[in-house]
Amino acid sequence: MKLSHRVAHRYLKARQDRELIAQANKIYKDLVQYITKTDISQMALTNKLEPVAVGRVYWDEVEGEGLPLVRFSKNTPHSNSDLSFIFHVGGTKTYMGTQNQSSYIGVGMRGYWVEGETLQDQILYVLKKERGDIIHEITHYLDYVRLRRGHQKAKDSYKTPEEDRGGYFNHPLELNAYFIQALSGITEDIEEQILFVGKGGRVNDHQVAVFSISEWLDQYGNNFSKFLKSFWVKAPRNFKTMLTPENKKRFEKRVYDTWDKLQRQMHQIKKELISSNDPAALLAF
Ligand SMILES: [Zn+2]
């Protein structure tokens, strides 16, 4: 069967979306793991995180009153551009910025700050609560690395929400970041389970994965409108109301393409598991 150019293009886009989500999730997970394993308060005290450099480069960028606490540099596989995470105790915004070859994501912690808790616990809590926003900013970072000049060009027409609310939410860079933010919110778990279903994993991981796929198929397997509804639940309210009808339609097509790929893949996995007499599959399906 020969796919039309149009359909082939949509398939390619859906694959790119899933790859982008996988990359964003990986950076997010690495960050959580880094914070979990590192004695942050100790590092901040001993100045091992180059606070001078952080102050010089990032101070005043968005949150003038904020305190940059953690600098976490990360090399991505496709670029040596590094990414830092800065946590602002008094900040309220989550944002991404670039300077020279460096990128940084600032995370405001004010709304979540609790006196007496360890810094590590507070940061982990914010990361969990603000996962969607952080995936959003990581998407901006990945777009910046991926598009470079195109990103710069797109930035020229950028409007802040204060300047032009409709313009901000319907800007191509924001559309992509909000899209990936919402879609990753509903596909993150199942994408991980797909990895666990393969051979070589632990028996328990495999069994959980098979049951998760069975559950996903029950829920979404033949039900795109349910999947779409879950997608909109994950999209911030402001964004939903400001989206133009054309962009809303484009989004729904884009969600459909990912759903379509996922459900085909899941039905295929189910078929293969059953035909190989997989013990977990015999229980799950
Ligand atoms: Zn944004």
Order of helices and strands: HHHEEEEHHHHHHHHHH
Which geometry do the CA atoms define? globular
Q: How many structural domains are formed by the residues? A: 2
Strand order of the largest sheet: 1-2-4-3
Helical amount among residues, as a percent range? 55-70%
Q: What's the main sheet like?
A: 4 strands, mixed
How many alpha or pi helices? 13
Give the low-pLDDT segments.
Answer: 45-67, 74-80
Specify the structural class.
alpha+beta
Radius of gyration from the alpha-carbon trace, in angstroms: 21 Å
Can you list the ligands bound to this structure?
A: zinc ion
Number of strands: 4
Which percent band covers the strand fraction? 5-15%
N→C terminal distance: 30 Å
Average pLDDT works out at 82
Could you characterize the architecture of this molecule?
With 285 residues, the chain is of the alpha+beta class. It has two domains: 34-156, no CATH class; 168-284. Helices cover 66% and strands 9% of the residues. It is built from 13 helices and four strands. It has helices at 5-37, 40-45, 51-58, 119-129, 131-147, 149-156, 165-169, 172-197, 203-221, 224-234, 237-242, 245-275, 279-284; strands spanning 75-76, 79-88, 94-99, 102-108. Strands 1-2-4-3 form a four-stranded mixed beta sheet, with helices on one face. Helix 5 packs across helix 6, helix 8 (172-197) crosses helix 10 (224-234) and helix 8 (172-197) runs parallel beside helix 12 (245-275). It starts with a helix and ends with a helix. Mean pLDDT is 82; it is low at 45-67 and 74-80. It binds zinc ion. Residues 136, 140, 174, 177 line the site of zinc ion (ZN).
